[in-house]
């Protein structure tokens, strides 16, 4: 129904029908607390609220808002956290394992591969950080959307948990090496064994828990001092390689794969370097003797260099994040790369492969100051583990605050004390404990690498998608980024994930897809609108391309489908019809159109009212759970507005071909949003004493006249659109149809009651009716109903006609088979016996477009026509006791340039009213 009101008004005028259109009108914590929360800056900050059209540039490179609290520069804020994270547990514990098994050539190649992947991913991170203002509180799901971003965010949370377990395992190894039974005699200060190690790891994990609960903020700002300690310890290692002579080093007590107790360290020797150039894979004594190969070694190596986002995580404390993040991250990547390359070369030149393969912590015994290595191991691993535990808890807090999983994680938000997410920290701690049960550091490292690679893949995917879609507000100032760098980074991470461990990689991808599906089904629908989603940008790009390819000149009847434009004044009174048309569209276009009556005057300073109402109609579509678009227009009259909607609805070749109107009647409207037993009951559109979508109450007059309504029917047909007039749909109850066996039929009456002919009982209009009825009959709720076609034969058949040679029933049956429509044919005996069609045919033609425009109607003919329609109505009602929906033939309306046009419109509509009186939900089709 259509509302007629001035544009300054906030309420629609009352509607006038129980159906649709007829009738009228009617965590800002420091350091790693920002893990994965920077990617929303792809689109920078939102447009100012005083620019409703959103045409201003999104954000600026500087960030004056809140900059007073930013104190860190490039070195302290980015370089130190990134370098420290990339040294992690690898530098003192596993570089020897890598060189001893892969050889120097493969080791250097693996470092190059890893750092190439990291470099291209850093390029994407730098593009994000230089694309406008960088804030510290927008997680990746706000760029990728709640489904993809939420799932990737969850996997990144798991990656932090696994990374924490990896660091704790490395720290425990360092403790065992220095205070456990490290020599062959089994002597030592503390005992060793699988469960003893688990106890030590659990103790370290608990210690980290206490630190995070008490002093996480203080730790997050000490990364520069911690890095200094690690670098000093690393320098002592380099000096030892250059100065230490040959010595014998004990084999760890836990290594039961060999029968010797010591291995040789040679110092700088050419023959040692030569022997370590090529790979020599053996078994890993820390993982029950599992065979080592290229994938295992690379998985361990990559797990140690997954810290490139540590600088972006600190953006909330950086004075100039858009400059500091690229400069600090790239310099830290270069610094750690050179350190690892130098360390690998020195290890290969000084240490035998036997020692490298059988004592992964050999750096301590060969160091001229062994205590430095111990300090380096404990400092690097403990700080990395603490950083990951903080990061995991903050990621979990972000997921909870953004309600990615709805109310499932509400306990995290409730369990926050002084900005410290206590509940999230404890939950992360429990998961780390579960990871520690794996035991082997090398196994944990592979899982950690795969999860971080998937996160890096998502980062590259986000940037690639935005770059490909040509989003105008993605303008990073980092000049070395392009879609090529993002694609190479994406491809590299995807390939190496499966190289490391195809089972882990496939499992993580499957888990990600399951999370995508779950979040699509259960996450709040409003999140995509609040955050923006890369999927929307990608869909826009693809839809535009395919719409241009969709050519209306190539339409073919084999692939025809109904594309509906349902004209609605107030959805309160026509919810069943909205839902029914959604069923009838059969995968086609469905547009719900509404005309707001008013005038957009030049001197009127108010905004277009359709802009404000559009979101209300979108909420209606969500509430009704229909797959429909919404089109609103402002017009001086309902008729003019409908013409607008018919012309402009849809786009390209996807335009409605069928217009659906409510019937013009006097029936009282029902409010399906308030009706107690209504499946559409809701209070969503009632607030502050104002009801959205008002409708015509009892006693209120209609604002759309009969003549205008009939002219609208004529307009639709002249605009070459199929037309459906729907009546009695307030009686439709799909739930009753589903559970009640009394409703059994869908009926089709393929005869023009106003001009009955027998030459072809199945003309174009009848075929269209059959098509619509067949489509409804294909859907689950309607499938149990039988489709009936009623054959109405008259005795006015010429003996020379083809109909005389072949009975109409046979022709109709053949047509149904040709169209592959399963329906039963029912003849109407009364049609020939009780009704004189020859007598009424010329009379009824006066009320249609086929009549002589100058013919004057006699009162006697009008009364006889009404009696005729009442008799037809009785015949139809007698056969409709178990009918769900009836399809009937709609005659053309009176021709416009005719004598007594207004009277003909009234009589035309009166006859249709008599014809459809007290029937089940009825659709008049032309």
Automatic annotation (TrEMBL):
Main location: membrane
Entry's localization field: Membrane
Keywords linked to the UniProt accession: Membrane, Transmembrane, Transmembrane helix, Transport
Transmembrane segments: 75-99, 111-134, 196-216, 223-241, 292-312, 324-348, 368-391, 422-441, 447-468, 480-498, 504-522
GO BP field: cell volume homeostasis; chloride ion homeostasis; potassium ion homeostasis
A GO MF label: potassium:chloride symporter activity
Membrane association type: Multi-pass membrane protein
Domain Amino acid permease/ SLC12A: 84-565
Gene3D superfamilies: Amino acid/polyamine transporter I
Protein name in UniProt: Solute carrier family 12 member 9
